[in-house]
C-alpha cells in the first residue's frame, strides 16, 4: 500500500480565555491540518500549530515545508515501511519540526488504521502491560494579575481538575506571590506545577524557587526556568534547588534529550510532538528515558484535538510517561471534530477506534 496524496487545510477555534505565558498571548487556535491518503482511500490526519516564538515555525513556513519539500519527497512511498518514510522526511529539510510533526502524526494515524489498531496499542506493543486506557491531564493557568490567576485556579478546581500548571516568569517576587495566593485558595491537596517558559535568569530561578520552597508552597516541579539555549543554566538551577526541574524547550530532539539525561540538565523531560518532529522521534526519547530511568511528561503547544490526540496515544503507550499536560482541547470553546479520545474534565479516555480515533475534520482541504 502506497501513500497516494497529501492535502492541507486550516482551522480556527476560539479559546475560552486568552492563553498567556511569559512569551506570548493567544486568543484562538489557528492551525494547519494535514490529511494523508492511501491508495485504498484510507485517510490519516495531523495538525501543525504555528508557534514561532518556540519552534521558529510560522504558518507560511509550515505550509511551504510540506508543499515544496515533504510532500514531493514521500508521496508514493510504501506505507508498510514507516521508518524509511520518516528517514526520507527528516533528510529532505532541516528543522521545521512542526511541519514534520503534522505529517508524522497523519502517517501514524493512517498506518494504525491500515493495521486495524488504535495507535496506543500499536505504540505499546513492546510492553503491553504498560498501556493505559485513561489519563489525567493538568490544566493551564495563564499568567495574569494575581487575583485573576486565583479566580482561574479556583474555577479549574471546581471543574474537577486536581493538577494546575501555573504560568509564571514575569517577576521573581511577583511569581512567588502568585503561587502563594493560589495555594492558599485551592488548598494543600491540589498539585501545582510551575512553568516559567524560559522567563528567569539562572539566579532569578534559584532565588524564586528557593523562596517557594521556604514558604512551604509544595510545588511538584518547575518547568523550563531559563532560556532553552542556557544548558549550563539548567544544570545550575537543577543542582541548587530541591524542587524537580522539568526540561521543555531545551529538548527538541533525541540528542537533546540524551544530553539532558546524561549531564543532569534537568530531573524530568517534557516531550512535545511539535518540538520533536512527531511520534517517531518522541518514541526514541521515551526509549532513552527508559534506559536512564527518567520520568517524562507528554505536553502540547496550543493545539486542538487532532495533534493532542496523538500525544494522548503516546502517553498511554509508554511507562516512562507519568505526567500529561494535554489540556489543549479543554482550552478551546468548541470541539469541531468527531471521534478521538474523550475528555471528561481532567480525565482523558481512550477508545479502541483505529488510529488516533478522529473520524471527521471540518476543513476544506487542498491537495498538494
Automatic annotation (TrEMBL):
Signal peptide: none annotated. Binds 1 Mg(2+) ion per subunit. InterPro entries: Dipeptide_epimerase (IPR034603), Enolase-like_C_sf (IPR036849), Enolase-like_N (IPR029017), Enolase_C-like (IPR029065), Mandel_Rmase/mucon_lact_enz_CS (IPR018110), Mandelate_racemase_C (IPR013342), Mandelate_racemase_N_dom (IPR013341). It holds the Pfam family MR_MLE_C. Residues 147-244 form the Mandelate racemase/muconate lactonizing enzyme C-terminal domain. Its cofactor is Mg(2+). Its EC number is 5.1.1.-. Keywords: Isomerase, Magnesium, Metal-binding. It is an enzyme of class 5 (isomerase). The keyword Magnesium applies. Belongs to the mandelate racemase/muconate lactonizing enzyme family. This is Dipeptide epimerase.
